[in-house]
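Exam revision sheet. Question 4 asks you to relate a sequence to its structure. Input first:
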Amino acid sequence: MLNTTLCYIEQDGKYLMLHRVKKKNDVNHDKWIGIGGKFETGESPEDCLLREAREETGLTLIRWRYRGIVTFLSAADAEAEYMHLFTADGFTGTLKTCDEGDLEWIEKERLLELTLWEGDKIFLKLLDQDAPFFSLKLTYDGDRLTEAVLNGRPLQNGRLIAAPTGALQEPLLVSACLLGAACRYDGQSKPLAGLTELMERYQLIPVCPEQLGGLPTPRTPSERVSGQVITRDGRDVTAAYTRGAEEALRLARLFGCRKALLKERSPSCGSGTVYDGTFSGALTAGNGVTAALLKENGLQVYGESQVEELL
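Answer key, structure tokens:
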């Protein structure tokens, strides 16, 4: 059994990547990977992490996170490799030249443009989603990925296949209108396409902040205006939206949600873009009351146009 570490050091939205081009007979030749290597006798995962970081980069890590364990199996090698995966965003020292390849800071959004192992793309996505600690099994035949299993559940094209009976699913807070509940301001719903895939991947926790805040359905349309929420006929309903946001956060904490899928552009659930308060259909940069509170408390918030990122 071989134990190794791999670490992605973060800075300014970039990962420090190692382009393995210097060693002969390198199984990772021409691939871009993080930094790391094999355990030495008596080392823990953290011991190996810190030593490899100093040896390969010249940096001393002072803040890191243990993110998961990746089990590698190969048709050509009977020995399994257990790779302990870390990220680090605190370090001291000056970057040095590495004798195993070229070190370069790469923007996270550009990573998939690089020459990567197929399995690396899976755990890089999990890191990007801030997934809880995970166990990922990757089986290769040469350079070809033949099997991927996440937390005991098989993946197909990087996505989870239907969960076995009794499997623990990650909780996901979801705007109830996206699940088909008729709770929008007009008494209608906006059901998602691909809902079945979400249900296979997550335990869906429906929430309607407006109703939780005491507002009726249907109700007069509202938009955000200078930090308040105002109805089309001029009433200030900020207090109700604030109550609903607080209840939504309470539910997220109760179920352990780290992510939320919310209705876009809404004065409650909009993330990044909301209606601008003129009731003309015009949009402006900003967050709804609930989306803002969830983000402030560490949740990742997605809109319905970003469902693919959750799968």
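Marking note for examiners. The chain has two domains: 2-160, 170-310.
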